């Protein structure tokens, strides 16, 4: 299940074992274990409230563990949280900038927080300004920046002290697509320099770009691996099934109908088309004529490799069913 | 590595930037206490004078009029109305138009002339105890004085001659008594609110959480926040003292530098209090409520308005927990009594301990991250 090209003896950037976090009666994180190797872009996914941010807070020492153990950059988060904090950078969902300070002042402040000596602070400021293109905005108040620039500044502040590992909690929430693309280009560039990224996101296209993804659902880790390995999981693409895309102008009506046709195991709308999991020997031409008979024009039916989103949807259905079964 | 003040310099730098950038807030938080001082300084007179008094003089002859003149000349009573029957006398008091009613019976002059005891009825509205007390004292004293004059006839020396001498503030000027105490309350107000708000704002913006992921230590964070506001509080003290000295003409008998020095531990306490409040409050509104909770005891249990001696025994120890108690003793001591360090060092020390205690409590809450939950 583990990701790609790892040197067998290198200490991982993060190793979490049986993490548990309870809030009163609620178990927000339930026996979660994973490893993140150095230099990976690790995508941590899951619906809202599933425990993503809680895991980040546990790994960065903001929340004590109720159970289990975790090592970050080789240090135990329970006993050496301070050492961990020296080595990591953290960018939270709301960017956490001082809006009444200028871009330059924000950077300088975070540099001082990490006690960079003046010469190194100066060099790092120049590097980060250069890398992010802050030059024209240095004297501007952080409050006056656009969403994309705020997020860049937050990232700049988080990496000023040259951490080997950066936690980014929904770094692209609420910013425009161009800024999103630029951020990911930057992440790849930094990753090329050996920096490890722990990124949470809702966007599937972002998940596809990660070298390693994990999916958390109601506090349980239900998937962990490379995007490719997850797409090929038996739960996602069971034996004897086929995934097809049905393109039609009337997706909602087609979906209602399709769900009652024998041989179609599941169906979901994706934009102007329906993704369906069907039996291998399912009669696709029969389906087309059946839809036509009901007055639904069909542009195209073609087979499809499962996307990461398909993978997560299937895994979520399966775990929902398991949870319900356990509930009964 | 184990520097418990780690991050102090960075936080201090940042706080100074905040203050400079938000000049309007600073300006108002400095100017409003001065406005309050002006208002209260002119508006409040703690000496009870000119109590509204209604008179029913059933006698009306010279002796009775002399008595009324003496009451009037005491400056304590203002005779606002003369009535002709008991009912009107009562009604005036019940309706609140008069606090005191004086009834001189019809045989007052006769009895005095026949060397008999003459009675004067003094009705006092007890709904304000300090007014009532003053009315009792003055009428009793005047009655005694009148009696002695009748008994001793002409200029015979009194057997016992009490000569009270008021040592400090001999004119009993209200501002002299009132403003040194007010200084303590105003300073508490400004500094507590400023620090509490500054930290609550970081909580709301999420920057506090960000700071907790950096190697900043709680003590570095708290002192870095505290020191710039100590400077502001100190500047405010200078403004208040200047206003007190030159607008209200309150003479400062002691050493101003000593006063400045002893105000530092007081500012330290009230800033730490603000930090402790911010560790509990999640919004500015909550911080306001909690700050008010601390201000009321400071007003009522510190001796600022009512003497501490009047606090019931059970609650009396509470006054030792109120920082303003010590600082009011310091301000009144230096400004009015010309006290020196010999007299006031215990108060300074008490404040310093109180402040340290509060700061350690706050730092512990910050260390446990309890405040983020």
Largest sheet of chain B: 4 strands, mixed
Low-confidence blocks of residues of chain B: none
Shape estimate of chain A: globular
CA radius of gyration of chain A is 23 Å
Number of strands of chain A: 14
Summed up, the helix count of chain B is 14
Number of helices of chain A: 11
Spatial strand sequence of the major β-sheet of chain A:
6-7-8-3-9-10
Secondary-structure element pattern of chain A, one letter each: EEEHEEHEHHHEHEHEEHEHEEHEH
Q: Which pair of protein chains has the largest interface, and what are the residue counts?
A: A-B, 27 and 25 residues
The CATH homologous superfamily of the largest domain in chain A: P-loop containing nucleotide triphosphate hydrolases
Q: How many β-strand stretches of chain B?
A: 4
Order of helices and strands of chain B: HHEHEHEHEHHHHHHHHH
3D architecture notes:
The complex is a heterodimer of chains A (328) and B (373). Chain A is α/β, with parallel strands linked by helices and 328 residues long. Chain A folds into 2 domains: 14-231, Rossmann fold (3-Layer(aba) Sandwich), CATH 3.40.50; 241-305, Alpha-Beta Plaits (2-Layer Sandwich), CATH 3.30.70. In chain A, 36% of the residues lie in helices and 26% in strands. Chain A is built from 11 helices and 14 strands. Chain A has a 6-stranded mixed β-sheet with strand order 6-7-8-3-9-10, with helices on both faces. In chain A, strands 2-1-4-5 form a 4-stranded antiparallel β-sheet, with helices on one face. In chain A, helix 3 runs parallel beside helix 5 (147-159). Chain A is globular. Chain B is mainly alpha-helical. Chain B has 2 domains: 8-44 and 172-372, no CATH class; 51-152, abc type-2 transporter like fold (3-Layer(aba) Sandwich), CATH 3.40.1710. Chain B is built from 14 helices and 4 strands. Chain B is elongated and about 95 Å long. The mean pLDDT of chain B is 88. The A-B interface holds A 60-63, 82, 85-86, 88, 90, 92-101, 105, 108-110, 112-115 and B 1, 6-7, 9-11, 13-14, 17-18, 21-22, 205-207, 209-216, 369, 372.
